[in-house]
């Protein structure tokens, strides 16, 4: 198993038993270590996480009737680790999200080892079948209409995530979209996936995403949107709302750039009206409150930050007037205008060093 477990069989059983007990009882600290967990002579059945709490902020997917939390877990860069690297904190992040009722996890074969990390942790927690898994296809094929590469990608994702079927499969960044969308429609008919979607993370592709929504061939769209980058409102979000298409948001925290830009600025007094206790909840609630948004995907490798994020699922959402006040306040903060000029994860460039960063560094060296 790729997830870092103790080396002996007895220690592994104790480790898993302790971790599963932690998840089941809702403890607030990290995974129980093999040294402190009670020994077990026989494996215990993995407990199921409680059903989604009725009092957390949720949205309905019009095409399927699914009710999902307004917050989901993203995995780009944050869940990509080199082979043998410690993953206990990522395990703990997933535990926090699951205990809070979060079931939506978004990943991709393009995200290095993220699929392996999610699959191993979810399996160890007995939560594999409880996840609403949103995955992606990044495929061209050897020739026009060749599905070999896409099929292999699907099969590898099934193995890594320990799932035969996926709730949502998305054409990643619109790559080969004219071929991939019809292929995914066939997979949907064959029962391999439940929903078909398209994604992108750059403003230049908003009109293209809106075009695919208006064609009536997608059930969901994933797009970049934040309090600092609201360009999607007039294109993708409007088209999705009119068509009844689910919207999953990437980059709601601008990959750490929002926190960097506002620095130590205090929250406004009116944040308390929404139960907001930190800036992460401020930014996430703004995104969640747009009527077209179904689920806001926030990625983190830090368990403490995970706890901050999931707090956004409690308390009221801002109405249109309060949303305008939220924008006005942050636009008056020093440094906020520079959000888009900052590098992704400005304080964590050395932290997220997985397969992706290693390959990028090797390519730069060759150039």
UniProtKB/TrEMBL annotation:
The record, for Pfam families, names: Aldo_ket_red
Superkingdom as given in the UniProt entry: Bacteria
Q: Does the keyword Signal apply?
A: yes
Q: Which residues form the signal peptide?
A: 1-23
Keyword annotations: Signal
The name this protein carries in UniProt is: Diketogulonate reductase-like aldo/keto reductase
Where do the NADP-dependent oxidoreductase domain residues begin and end?
71-320
Please name the source species: Paracidovorax wautersii
């Amino acid at each position: 198993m790729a997830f870092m477990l103790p080396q002996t069989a007895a220690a592994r059983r104790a480790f898993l038993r302790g971790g599963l007990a932690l998840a089941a009882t809702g403890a607030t600290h990290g995974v129980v270590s093999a040294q402190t967990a009670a020994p077990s002579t026989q494996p215990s059945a993995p407990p199921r996480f409680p059903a989604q709490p009725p009092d957390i902020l949720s949205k309905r997917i019009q095409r399927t009737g699914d009710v999902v939390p307004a917050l989901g877990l993203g995995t780009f860069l944050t869940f990509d680790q080199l082979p043998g690297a410690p993953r206990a904190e990522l395990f703990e992040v997933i535990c926090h999200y699951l205990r809070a009722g979060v079931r939506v996890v978004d990943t991709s074969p393009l995200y290095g080892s993220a699929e392996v990390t999610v699959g191993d942790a979810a399996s160890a927690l007995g939560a594999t079948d409880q996840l609403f898994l949103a995955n992606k296809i990044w495929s061209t094929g050897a020739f026009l209409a060749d599905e070999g590469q896409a099929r292999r990608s699907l099969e590898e994702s099934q193995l890594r995530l320990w799932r035969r079927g996926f709730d949502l499969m998305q054409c990643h960044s619109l790559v080969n979209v004219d071929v991939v969308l019809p292929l995914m429609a066939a997979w949907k008919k064959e029962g391999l996936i439940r929903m078909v979607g398209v994604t992108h993370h750059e403003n230049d592709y908003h009109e293209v995403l809106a075009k695919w929504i208006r064609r009536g061939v997608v059930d969901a769209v994933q797009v970049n949107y934040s309090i600092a980058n609201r360009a999607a409102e007039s294109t993708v979000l409007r088209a999705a709302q009119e068509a009844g298409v689910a919207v999953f948001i990437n980059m709601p925290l601008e990959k750490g750039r929002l926190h960097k830009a506002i620095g130590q600025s205090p929250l406004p007094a009116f944040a308390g009206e929404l139960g907001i206790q930190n800036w992460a909840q401020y930014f996430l609630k703004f995104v969640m409150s747009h009527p077209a948004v179904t689920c806001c995907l926030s990625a983190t490798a830090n368990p403490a930050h995970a706890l901050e994020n999931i707090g956004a699922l409690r308390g009221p959402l801002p109405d249109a007037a309060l949303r305008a006040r939220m924008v006005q306040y942050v636009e008056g903060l020093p440094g906020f205008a520079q959000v888009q000029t900052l590098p992704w994860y400005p304080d964590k460039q050395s932290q997220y060093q997985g397969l992706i960063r290693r390959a990028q560094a090797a390519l730069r060296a060759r150039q």
